[in-house]
Amino acid sequence: MEILVYGIGGVGGYFGGKLAEAGHEVSMIARGEHLKEIQKHGLEVESIKGNFKVKPKKATSDVSEVPTPDLIILGIKSWQIPEVAKELEPIIGENTIILPLQNGADNYEKLIQILPEKNILAGLCFIVSFIEVPGKVKHASYEPKIVFGEADNLQSQRVKKIQDILDEAGVENNVPENIQLEIWKKFLFICTVSGIGGLTRVPIDRIRSSEYLHEMMINTAKEIIEVAKAKNIPLTEKHLEMVFEIINSQPEGTTASTQRDIMNGKPSELENFNGYIVKEGDRLGVEIPVNRYIYECLKPMEEAARKSRE
Ligand SMILES: NC(=O)C1=CN([C@@H]2O[C@H](COP(=O)(O)OP(=O)(O)OC[C@H]3O[C@@H](n4cnc5c(N)ncnc54)[C@H](OP(=O)(O)O)[C@@H]3O)[C@@H](O)[C@H]2O)C=CC1
Ligand SMILES: CC(C)(CO)C(=O)C(=O)O
Predict the structure, then answer these.
(1) Which pLDDT tens digit goes with each residue over 55-82?
(2) Domains along the sequence of the chain with CATH
(3) What does this protein do (predicted)?
(4) How many CB atoms lie within 10 A of CB 140?
């Protein structure tokens, strides 16, 4: 299968690397020193599940250099989707499948604003991974998993085909009954912990051990559930409990990827997380004071991070 992985960071590097290791024709879009290293020496993946090294079919920063893909995996950040979607437009074929793996609740919606709806699946992933040094991605913890499906949850042939490919590559995957609900369940967790994590700048175990901050997380999550309900997403109190079971079971020192970006002064997914809840809460008439507080407190830092990259 002709596969294009756009964005060879923690997520794209690990999952794209596994597909290349399994023998697929994998082209990789990267840039800067990371691209140079991949071009020279291949992509190295250090993983708790076993290290490996792959030579992509092509590593480039220019999508026009790659053949029309059967499958495109998006490994970029959620806020990069609009610019990347525009770039991908000319190379998408009639049957190209696009699989987003980003955190965030509206990645599919952002993609269909630019690219044909029929080409796009909905998805998400679980892993803790990052670029350790140029040319090398480190999978540090978490059982890697891709959850995906058709936006209307149809059990299509193409979904089955991707499942087979992932199975063969040894990538755990699941096609759920309701992909939107799975996206929102993950979003409920990640949005609850990332903003507060960015504000407090301490790992989840330190946040949950403070009565005040624990309460703040609960209120953040409750607001997200109210916004979901207003959008007819069936998130309930049961999911709140499930999320807090996950929060309470995280090992000491755990931080989420967006929290790490905020703490490191990098552009983050704030706008797509608490910012999205603020935007949708205001639009739908749902009270979201805690998410607004988190968002407004972090916004100046986010603006500074983005300015520093201009
Ligand atoms: N990492 C993790 O553990 C997890 C992350 N996620 C989610 O997955 C998504 C991806 O995260 P993650 O892998 O951490 O992100 P990374 O920042 O590690 O990777 C994104 C990569 O895409 C590259 N990129 C972006 N735009 C371009 C471009 N125009 N041309 C070439 N390269 C480009 C970036 O390069 P540059 O740095 O130069 O911008 C970067 O190397 C996010 O939505 C995140 O929330 C989900 C589960 C776990
Ligand atoms: C919580 C986790 C590690 C799960 O994959 C994640 O999605 C992230 O850090 O962005």
Answers:
(1) 999 999 999 999 999 999 999 999 999 9
(2) 2-177 (3.40.50.720), 181-308 (1.10.1040.10)
(3) Catalyzes the NADPH-dependent reduction of ketopantoate into pantoic acid.
(4) 13
